[in-house]
Request: fold
Amino acid sequence: MNWDERIIGERELKEFFKDGDDRNLASLAKALVEHQKQTWPLLGEGYLSLETIETKQFQVRESRVVVQHNPGRRRSTTARVDRASVEARKCFLCSDALPQEEKGIAYGDLMILCNPFPVLDNHLSIVHRQHTEQKIAGNVEMLLSLARDLGSEFFVLYNGPQCGASAPDHLHFQACSRKLLPIENDLGADDLSSTEDCAICAESRNNFELFTLADCARSVVIFRGNRGETIAAWIYKTLASLAGDFSAEPMINLIATHDRAGWTVYLFPRARHRPYCFYAEGEDQLMISPGAIDMAGVIVVPERDHFERITSEKLEEIFAEVSMSVEEVDFHVEQASETPVSEGLF
Ligand SMILES: [Zn+2]
Reply:
């Protein structure tokens, strides 16, 4: 089956619209999830188990972190993403590998699909129609426009090929309901809401902010503003500094939101993909494989006994191991600030 045969239009999705929903991309995406729950048994089961999923909350330094026991994510958490393993398997994001029931919404060169193993509500996989490698160079603009078009109810994420993407060979983003996005609380809700409700402020707020968050146990760089080109240019400059002399993409995760105040992008510079406890044995093993959602404060744990063993100290340790150090991140942010925009593409 090719991508065109999988496209589902507004007419078919109409009966899944909720009363009062505007005909925008967010409503279409939510209707797609409802449609697929009914027509694709695997997805129906995925959402049923999401309803009964167990969670625990932890305070990790100044940050609230939610830990989720989600057995459905076992395959993704343990996925082999080294080059040899990826080359040896068939790509599971190409259209011909997807189940017959899987339908999507066309969005430019991308297809908006439902993630069959949801971590959060309305969990979407947003997949390029071509089998082209997962990379951020040249694709930040796509991430920003997705965040804008899906609107304030969603966040959009990008997992680097070496730190969270289980298909490093096929370009894709994800999006989820923004109802649970703990890292947002660390930004200071007061600060955001004061500008969000005022149309005049939002319009006149043609500024740009770049800063790092302190004391949330992992390194995160925040880009905030209402001009997409400015944000993209600064993200590219920061990525160029993080990449240094290497031609490879630096290890990163990105989360983007958009509302009346503009975009907020969270960049998590990483030191490693999986923490030591992932490879440990017996009582010391915690199978946690952090991607953007985990870095944003929702830690996914597929194994029951590992879920039981999590502590706040352990979470702090994991964040510290997989994050680039604060000193290094500060250095790169400073270096990016001194780079002219035109030299920022890596
Ligand atoms: Zn593919």
Observations:
- The mean pLDDT is 91.
